[in-house]
């Protein structure tokens, strides 16, 4: 049986009358690269701050590496690496000074490992932090999070604010570290396309509630685009088919988005006067969009 590195049971966090996280039950096993997906304001950062012991749960339980993040915070900080959306880097320091300063907070610090990562990312130890590009600053934050060889690496929107090419390079950096280290990683982001080639398991949170948690390939298989030819039916009939969320196209062809598509849907579409021509797999990002679309519509955002 896999060992749980992160485990929450009915975790709820309130800010006054506002519920930021609502009954979240989640397990991240050792060795997983776990993608934590959600729109801005979905509850991702509140969850991560609670995992780090910076916030207390209003109710429910939260365990990280088998420990209570609040009561055992000092021990956990020696075993967790963390990169935030806006890492705290001191611009007047040189890279080597930033490394030495950060290392002073840990009981164990692997200078050889740090030197290898700096070389891998092309970061000059003598360069001042203020002279680093945003992408290089993000890479340095990742290096600093790895210096004490953490058992768990938590990345909270680490590529926010980076342009497309820099973000891709930074993602490559994360992939390289993951492949070499083989450690447990929790990557939180609203940029879903970042996850597809990195995460082997994903969870989707919306409005503080868990919508789905599955292996990445299985999650992508939840929603299909189905090309149909109308042979006597109309769109109203298609909309009545269970699981249909979107209908596109004109004339006698329609592209229908269907959740949990299976043989029963093929038969229901046929009964509605539509012959299935083709079934198209969706990307992780497309599957995510279809999952959260109803919630965005209810909030008047679409």
Entry summary:
The chain is 32% helix and 30% strand. It has two domains: 4-216, Rossmann fold; 224-281, Alpha-Beta Plaits (2-Layer Sandwich), CATH 3.30.70.
Largest sheet: 6 strands, mixed
- Integer tally of domains: 2
What CATH architecture of the largest domain would you give? 3-Layer(aba) Sandwich
- Rg over alpha carbons: 22 Å
- Order of helix and strand elements from N to C terminus: EEEHEHEHHHEHEEEHEHEEHEH
Shape: elongated
Number of strands: 13
Helix tally equals: 10
Class by alpha and beta content: alpha/beta
**Strand content of the residues, in percent?**
25-35%
Compute the average pLDDT.
Answer: 88
CATH H-tier superfamily of the largest domain: P-loop containing nucleotide triphosphate hydrolases
Low-confidence stretches: none
The strand order across the widest sheet is 5-6-7-3-8-9
